[in-house]
Write a structure and sequence with these properties.
Elements: H1 19-40, H2 53-57, H3 59-69, E1 87-92, E2 99-104, H4 111-127, E3 131-137, E4 143-149
Antiparallel strand pairs: 1-2, 2-4, 3-4
Helix pairs in contact: 1-3
């Protein structure tokens, strides 16, 4: 029996597993995602270039898998509710089917200053996988991406 893979959205407790095992699990999940594309996007000239229906139905999970597979670290939330790790956070945006990606970290970590560059890295990864990723600024000039699958 295969263990269930949980995508790291950045809202979970810090991952407490051997980093090599986690890397292997993320790679397997990403390879499975690409296989789903290959099998489901049969009407496309390049089936790997656009998200499959599975990704469109679970966009937060799909985006999180893609980012972690690219070596971008997820943030985390400790038992005390504070963030002990700097990285991406994926969650639902206000519009259905759209993912909000933020760059968050512990207080004083400089995450807000690094957000522009790091979100740019996230956007490049996602655009290369057929997602549209646009950067916005919210309250307090907080940067974030809105990510959705290309048609």
């Amino acid at each position: 029996m295969t263990a269930r893979f949980d995508a790291a959205t950045g809202d979970e407790a810090p991952i407490e597993t051997d980093p090599r095992k986690r890397t292997a699990a993320v790679r397997a999940a990403f390879d499975s995602l690409l296989e789903i594309r290959r099998l489901m996007n049969t009407d496309s000239d390049d089936p790997l270039a656009t998200p499959a229906a599975w990704e469109r139905h679970q966009p937060v999970r799909a985006v999180a898998i893609a980012l972690e597979a690219a070596g971008i670290p997820p943030s985390a939330v400790g038992a005390d509710g504070h963030r002990p790790a700097t990285g991406y956070r994926c969650g639902e945006a206000e519009r259905a089917g759209v993912v909000r990606v933020e760059w968050l970290g512990p207080t004083g970590s400089g995450a807000a200053y690094a957000a522009g560059e790091q979100l740019g890295n996230c956007a490049r990864v996602l655009r290369g996988l057929g997602w549209e990723a646009l950067e916005y600024r919210g309250r307090g000039r907080h940067r974030y991406l809105e990510v959705e699958p290309l048609p």
